[in-house]
Request: fold
Amino acid sequence: MEKSLKAACIGEFIGTGLIIFFGVGCVAAVQLAGAAMGLWEISIMWGLAVALAVYASAGLSGAHLNPAVTIALWKFANFDGKKILPYVISQMLGAFFASAIVYFLYKDLFAASEAAKEIVRGEGLGFATVFSTYPNAHISVVQAFFVEVVITAVLMMLILALTDDGNGVPRGAMAPLLIGLLIAALGGAFGPLTGFAMNPARDFAPKIFAFLAGWGDIALTGGRDIPYFLVPIFGPIVGALLGGFIYTREIGQNLPKK
Reply:
């Protein structure tokens, strides 16, 4: 592996890990320690996690931190296709190891909370919901898929808008913070439906950790007939490609030439 690609993979590993460290840590604080945070506060925490992760890793890798974003940037922004797999592997590993760190830090509270509520790990979702997203009980897996497609399309479209210096006033160093606010806005508006995954690495790698940490198959299936882990993988990829297409076709091509 060439030196520049190795550095980029390190950036993706660290950046994606930071998102999970702060985001999953926040959810653990709410579910296990009774931290007084509602939907908006949790959404802000995830947004800040993304902003800080972008600041930390942009210089090394461009701060994709999301396989769906990486694939869309390959399709619409000339990202080297040979780097997709190394980027995605790095993102997945970062999310997995960050999940393990959060679990280790909160392991006594996991045990105490399960004992207090007489929860047998693996018999239901229980506190597997600390690590990754699952749909609202009142919506189907198919509906959840469309939710993830739509919100990830909006995410990708606005990421491209916020990082395109040809689109209005250059955002520069403000772009990561604005992207964080975008994440928070999407979470505040649509989090109750699917948990606003929008990122296969953010969701699948923590699900794998939960599977290995004792929650078993239900961590992957979510107790649904159609295994739910498929939704936050393919929904965001389809959504990011759709958002990238809409931006480049309807906005990017119509911007005034400088």
